[in-house]
Amino acid sequence: MSVANVTYTSREEIEVHKFSPWATIGVPLAALLVQSLLGTRLRFVSVFDLPLLVTIFFAVARRNQLTGMATGMFIGLLQDSLTHHPIGMYGIAKTVVGFAASSLGVRLDVENPGSRIIMGFSFYLLHQAIYFAVARNLVNEEIPWAWGHTLGAALANGLLAVVLFAVMDKLKQRA
Amino acid sequence: MENLFVRHRNATLLVALLFAQILGLAMQVKRADPNQPDHKAPLLRVWVMSVITPVEKLVVSSGHGIRDTWNDYVNLRGVRKENRDLKAQLERMRIEQIRLQEDAEQGRRLQAVLHFKEQFISQTVAAQVIGSSGSEQSRVIYIDKGANDGLAQDMPVITPDGVVGKIVRVLSSTSQVLLITDPAWGVGGVLEKSRLQGIAKGTPSGDLKFSNILADEKVEPGERVLTSGGDRIFPKGLPLATVSELLKREDMFLNIRLVPATNLNRLEEVLVITKVEEREPSADETANGPVRAADVLAQRLPSVKKPETPQSGSPAAVKPANPQQQQKVQPKPAETRPEAPATGDNPR
Questions:
Q1: In order of start, what are the domains of chain B with their CATH numbers?
Q2: At a CB cut-off of 8 Å and minimum separation 6, what does A42 contact?
Q3: Cβ within 8 Å, pair B135-A46
């Protein structure tokens, strides 16, 4: 039974992937770098959350909750370090997303473009909701929740996920 | 109990990781009191900035090198026409300059009579923008100058067009600049015509708003907003923004939307004001005939150096002391590159 046809199955029937140490360290750093560099020239780039998409990709490909949340926390804390906000806001949001994405990867087919758009869309919403809650309740930051903007950004991230994940598929190694 | 933990090991670890981060957040929020002298960046932030910013510097400088080579040696279409236009513009500017000289001279005389203390930008450091936070929630940029270049926290950052922001964190060769559009702070401003004072503050959506103007005051779109100096960060009189539109009132105050004077979405080079003096204009500045054009220009372009020979009165006064300096007069300020890291004695 091929992986592409699986919609709900046991862990044994789904491929688990691993990545080289270079990809594991390099891809998140590259995502942060690109996001930071392009942000000064192309302001609309800040709508995308490349580190989030990288978190989702690694989490669903490894299909391991432990590494999923560790990857999310690592990337989130690095992203926090480039902002002027307290470190941990993105860390918390991406830890949860990493855990949720890897849990989803165990259960569902995450290889086809349709499911990748939905993943990018929904995990972006989840990420923003957690960030919003942390900012409001723990750090006392005034961040408005703009539905229109957030849904648009979620869709943009969903579409980007299809392209980005297709490129990053080339980094996968069978575990 | 042990079985329960083993069965839910991952969920327990998730809770533990989240708890650790929340604890870390709480400690930072508690420490983030600007009145505390030990308000320092967490080590992780220093590490990440130290790793990311050198790569950004390399990428940005390589990009500039390629672009400059292309623009200077290959893409020379329309240069002759541009040159003709610039000469015509220069003639117009010289006529305008004579009028400005008269106004400036009169202003300085009056200031001296009134013992009026003025803020002078006496030193600036030119820096290149190398990166940003890349996040919608944090409107910060990174520049390629730091503590080694004399930069410190809360120093104002400007361009010839106007105000950009202030420095919030300084490493040895990099600094983090908080833009004026970030909602975390506000800049004291004054409307140019009506002289009404308020606070220009960023909104979470990235707009800039002007608050604390009572609803019965008259404000019109297009009016310029200058820095008031009330925030003790920016010197008085720098271009801050322009009134874009009047939105629905909020309580008893006007809800004014501003457009920043500087295009914050396309920043390449900025100036950091490292020294501001507050003094009365000196007797020389008022008694020795008309004020040099460079003085007037320096009010808007703090990086312009003083001409070495203080000739006055004639249009030739705008000419730099040597031909090399003359070449520095560029038609497009946004494309000029910083020549030296620091400039001295630039009165405004």
A1: 78-116+280-344 (no CATH), 118-266 (2.40.10.340)
A2: none
A3: yes
Q: How many domains does chain A have?
A: 1
Check CB contact of B283 with chain A, cutoff 8 Å.
Answer: no
Q: Is residue A7 part of a domain?
A: no
Q: Do A95 and B18 touch (CB under 8 A)?
A: yes
Please report residues of B whose CB lies closer than 8 A to that of A96. 14, 18
List the CATH number of the domain containing A24: 1.10.1760
User: Residues B36, B39, B43, CA angle at the centre, nearest 5°?
Assistant: 155
Cβ of residue B179 closer than 8 Å to a chain A Cβ: no
Q: Rounded to a whole number, what is the distance in Å from the CA of B54 to chain A's nearest CA? A: 11
Ramachandran angles phi, psi of B30, nearest 5° = -65, -40
- Answer yes or no: is the ipTM higher than 0.85: no
- A85 to B138: CB separation less than 8 angstroms, yes or no: yes
Cross-chain Cβ contact A92/B28 below 8 Å: no
Does A6 reside within a domain?
Answer: no
- B334 at interface of A, judged by CB pairs closer than 8 A: no
pLDDT tens for chain B, 348 residues long, are 566 667 778 888 888 888 888 888 777 766 555 444 444 567 777 778 888 888 888 888 888 888 888 888 888 888 888 899 999 899 889 888 888 888 888 777 777 777 666 667 778 899 999 999 888 888 999 999 999 999 999 999 998 888 999 999 998 889 999 999 988 888 999 998 888 899 999 887 788 999 888 888 888 889 999 998 888 888 888 899 999 988 877 678 888 999 999 988 888 889 999 988 776 666 555 545 444 434 544 554 444 444 444 444 333 333 333 434 334 333 344 333 343 344 433 433
Q: Give the residue from chain A lying closest to B12, CA to CA.
A: A66
* Contact assessment for residue B257 and residue B207, using Cβ atoms and an 8 Å cutoff: yes
Q: Are strands A173-174 and B253-260 parallel, antiparallel or unpaired?
A: unpaired
> What is d(CA B326, CA B319) in angstroms, rounded to the nearest whole number?
7
